[in-house]
Specification:
Blueprint lengths: L2 H6 L4 H4 L2 H8 L6 H4 L37 E5 L2 E5 L1 H4 L8 E5 L10
Antiparallel strand pairs: 1-2, 1-3
Length: 113
Amino acid sequence: MESHILRELGLCFVCAHCEHAWEGFQQRLGQCVIRYRGMKCDGPGGNDSFPHYKGPLGGDIVSFCFVCGGDTDFLVDAPGRKLALCRKHYNNPVWKGVRDGQKRENATGLGQA
C-alpha cells in the first residue's frame, strides 16, 4: 500500500493507511470500498471514529495526529474512543466542532505535548 499516493489525493493519515481505501483506489471507485458499499466510516468530523479501519496502524490511533500523522498534542472525543490532533490541526477551524480541548499533559511515548 502506498499511503503517500492517497495522502496526495486528500485522504487523512488514518484513511491513507487503510486497506479499504487502497482497495477502492485500485478499483477506481473514487472512494474507499466501505463508503462505496454504503457503510459509514468517518473520523470525528463525521461523528465517528474510523470503525472499519483495517491496516498497519491497528488500534493505536492516539499516538499521532489522525489528519497528518504528526505529533500528538490534543485529544478529541470520537464515538467509542479518543483520537489525537497535532497543534496545527487542532487550531484549524475545520476541527473546532469536534475537539474537546484536552491538552496532552503527559505525552510520553505518544508524541510531544
